[in-house]
Every structure is written in C-alpha cells, then in structure tokens.
Amino acid sequence: MNNMHTPLTEMLGIKYPIIMAPMFLVSNTEMLIAAGEAGITGSIPALNFRTIAAFKEGIESVRKATNAPVGVNLIVNKSNPKYKEQLKACIDLKVDYIITSLGSPQEVIEKCKPEGIKVFCDVVDLEYAKKVEDLGADAIIAVNKEAGGHAGPTPAKELVPLLIQNCNIPVISAGGVGTGAQLKEKLDFGACGISMGSPFIATNESGVSDAYKNACVEYGAKDIVMTTKLSGTPCTVINTPYVEAIGTKQSAFESLLNKNKKLKKFMKMLTFYKGMKMIEKAAFSATYKTVWCAGPSIEYTTEIRSVKDIVNDLIEQYKKANQEVTS
C-alpha cells in the first residue's frame, strides 16, 4: 500500500511524511532549508543557538529561504534554564510546530494551541503518551529502541501499534530508519510518519567536523552504545576508543549524588552541562576526547552526501519496496 499521504503530511503541508529530527549541535539552518527543498520538514533544538537573538535570526533566515514548515525542539524540564524565553520566541516567530522533550508539555500546549502552532511530544511508553494526549498534544513521537540520542526501551514494532491502539492522535515513529524499506515498515505499523536524524549527520549541509561525519560512515549499528555520563538520561553514542576508556556508566559517587533529594536537580543540571560541553568540543574540533552522538541507523551511511540525495534515495527505495509487495 502506498501510504505517503498521511495525517503528518496534511498537518504540515509536506510532500513526504518525514521530519528531520532535531539533533543537539548537529542541526543547523542550512539543514532546515535543505529539508524543506527536499519535500520534508526540518526541526532544530532551540539550544543549538547560543542566544535568543541568534535563535530568532536563524529561524527568520530559514523563513526567507523556504516556505517549508519549520520545527523547534524544546527541552521542557529544569535542565534547560532558557526554556521560558525560548518558548516565547517560538510563539513570537510563529514556528509551525514544537517538539517537546524531557518534561511536561502542558505550558507549551496551552500557549501554542491558540496560536495555531502544532505540538508533538516525545514519548517512550503508553502511560506518558496518554498524559500528553489528555493535555492536548497534536501528535505523539514514539521514541523507540532504535533511536539515536535519548532512545526509548521498546522496539518500534511494539511501541507504535501499542500507542495507535490506545491513543486517538497521530503517532510518529522515531528511530530505526536508514532505508526506504524501513520507512515503509514504520508506516505499515500505522505510524503517520517518521522522525529521522542520524542519517543526516554525514551531510554536506551539516556543520559538524569531518571527523564526526567520517565516523558515521566508518562505524555501524554494532558500534552504538548507551551512556548515562552525558545527561544523566541514557543516550546513544559511537563507541570510540575514548568512550571505551571512560566507560558508559556514572561513577558510584555521581549515582549517589543523583539519588540525594536535595542535590538531585542540581546534579542533573551539572551532568547535563558537562556532558553537552564534552559533545560540543568533539562535534566541532579535532580532539582525542571523541564523544559523538548517533543512532544505529548510521549503519546505512556509506558516504557524505547532500540532504536532498538522502531523501531522494529513501523515497526511491520506499517505492521499490512497495512495488515488490504489490507485484
């Protein structure tokens, strides 16, 4: 069945039901523009901009370059001290949609719905999905076990149908897509679209270092490991020699501090800050301290290409997979 016309394409007015996932430090305005020109939509973490002025300027520059919808990812818990002003900026800019992560989306939904801004919420289980649906989310992003960054514990083949059966809003699958056949698989599960990030790291438009891009070409799914050292929340990274050396678990002392009720919030913010600085240094410069975030779908990255080429190949592969089923 050809199911490329979905609630996601209708909501956002895009040709293909694909969101270029927001990737910390990787996503940039050039990638957003390229995504729009390729018939999909790009989203970017608000935290990728150092100041609110830079954030506004960046989104406005994308608006001038393309009519495609633009999305912004907001971290909505206390690890993000800029959350309130980022939300206000999103409303002032009238971005097309917001993806909420790591906290309650209640305020985002309450303030954005009257402005016509769609709100999609990252979820990893049914309990949280029901909560955000009740709050008025426009769609759920089912972050599955194959996702890059903060992955969920459940495979897409279980999580997506579970959410569809029990929720009444569209479900977008996040994770595990690097080919057109995998895109078809997620849509066949009932997802209205996908959120796909890691295959876009090694692109011409990406601003990260060549070393990071080449790592996505050279390493594969078997080289992806989960670490709690970066943000306190399990996060996927490439298992470089440096990651092997420092390990992937917090020390006993860090774990103890994280369990202390008075220190827990402070420690989470400190861990997040230190971890993000570590990633930032590795992303843009040559350093032996290589901590590169990526998901298992880098398995299908064989060279550095343009965003448009990746999307075109994905759609051609999808069409071929469809023909094989119907012929």
UniProtKB/TrEMBL annotation:
UniProt GO MF annotations? nitronate monooxygenase activity
Q: Does the keyword ATP-binding apply?
A: no
Q: Which domain of life is it from?
A: Bacteria
The alphabetized UniProt keywords are: Flavoprotein, FMN, Monooxygenase, Oxidoreductase
- InterPro entries, sorted: Aldolase_TIM, NMO
Q: Per the similarity annotation, which family is this?
A: Belongs to the nitronate monooxygenase family. NMO class I subfamily.
Q: What is the recorded name of this protein?
A: Nitronate monooxygenase
